[in-house]
Design a protein that fits this description.
By secondary structure, the protein is an all-beta fold. It has one helix and 23 strands. It has two domains: 233 residues, no CATH class; 72 residues, Immunoglobulin-like (Sandwich). The strands form four sheets. It has a twelve-stranded antiparallel barrel. It has a four-stranded antiparallel β-sheet with strand order 20-19-22-23, with no helix packed on it.
């Protein structure tokens, strides 16, 4: 399922925007069969080839919303962002410029709520190869007729960088993080102990705020679960784009055809190559563009409105 081939073509990346979501961002992931999928090797200049992942019939969607827009927002006063999942779960986050912490979790399907009195670190910004951070956390939750008081540690280890190959494209200068959560829960009123271990491998590039690929494995006693999913789309809500005179484009990498989410219909769109040569310029309201290019590589998409000019990088991989 996975071939790992060393390469000397990848530069060591520093990721500055991992999990640094704006309100209104929407992520769509393709869920995959996890059987036989290995995260591969750690280390410098790796090539992680997941091009043969087997897609399931399901996708998952995450939408970034405000705590006030959710039913349980008042339970987590330190939260300033909520990751709302399409399966009915809500992750309450306290995000700053340099980190993201989990402060609460709500499962509306199975009807339980987790509080993190000592919040759980799950993202650092910036982060580069060989960075290693460990942080303590605690949690309180109820399930069925049992109450749990837990504590543990979360470790973020930037253990590799290189090239990531997915079914929908190839990504260079990618940083892999190994996130380990070791937790011990005391089950009340019996005071018995329950131990769990979760290991997540996530890959980030310098373009997306979301992970490109997630491989999660959880072990609790004799129970083991595993999931694999990769990013299909990352879009930013139009309100946030308008406020910041920004735009988003997807898919990225692209085969040459891509869609632009614009802050205004009155925008000039231009595309140029690395040498600055203009390939396309349009002032139409058309938001899906098709570049007829002979070469794969990096291109720059520029959008100009009356508020100013913004540029984003587009990777073309036919």
């Amino acid at each position: 399922m996975l071939a790992v081939i060393p390469t000397i073509l990848s530069a060591q990346p520093t990721i500055t925007n991992a999990e640094n979501f704006s309100i209104g961002t929407v992520l769509t992931f393709q869920q995959c069969n996890s059987t036989g999928v290995s995260p591969g090797n750690s280390g410098a200049s790796q090539t992680w080839n997941f091009s043969t992942l087997t897609s399931l019939s399901t996708t998952s969607v995450e939408t970034m919303v405000t705590p006030a827009s959710t039913t349980h927002g008042n339970l987590f006063p330190t939260s300033n962002l909520v990751e709302k999942y399409s399966d009915g779960t809500f992750v309450y986050v306290h995000a700053t410029a340099d980190s993201s912490y989990l402060v609460g979790y709500v499962d509306t399907v199975n009807n339980y709520i987790i509080h993190y009195p000592n919040s759980l670190l799950f993202a650092l910004r910036p982060i580069t190869y060989s960075n290693l951070t460990t942080d303590a956390f605690s949690d309180i939750f109820s399930s069925s007729s049992y109450n749990f008081n837990g504590q543990g540690t979360s470790t973020i280890n930037a253990d590799g960088y290189g090239t990531l190959i997915l079914p929908n494209g190839t990504y260079s200068n990618v940083l892999r993080l190994k996130i380990t959560q070791n937790q011990t829960d005391t089950v009340l009123p019996s005071h018995t102990l329950s131990n769990s271990n979760t290991i997540s491998y996530v890959w980030f590039d310098g373009i997306h705020t979301s992970a490109l690929l997630k491989i999660d494995s959880t072990h609790t006693g004799t129970y083991t679960s595993k999931s694999v999913e990769y990013l299909l789309n990352e879009t930013i809500g139009i309100e946030e784009l308008t406020k910041n005179n920004d735009f988003n484009l997807y898919p990225n990498p692209s085969s040459g055809q891509f869609t632009i989410l614009l802050p205004s219909d009155n925008a000039i769109i231009s595309v140029s190559d690395l040498l600055g040569q203009q390939i396309l310029k349009t002032q139409t309201a058309e938001k899906t563009l098709n570049l007829e290019l002979d070469n794969n590589g990096i291109y720059f998409v520029q959008v100009t409105t009356k508020q100013g000019t913004t540029t984003r990088k587009l990777i073309v991989n036919r």
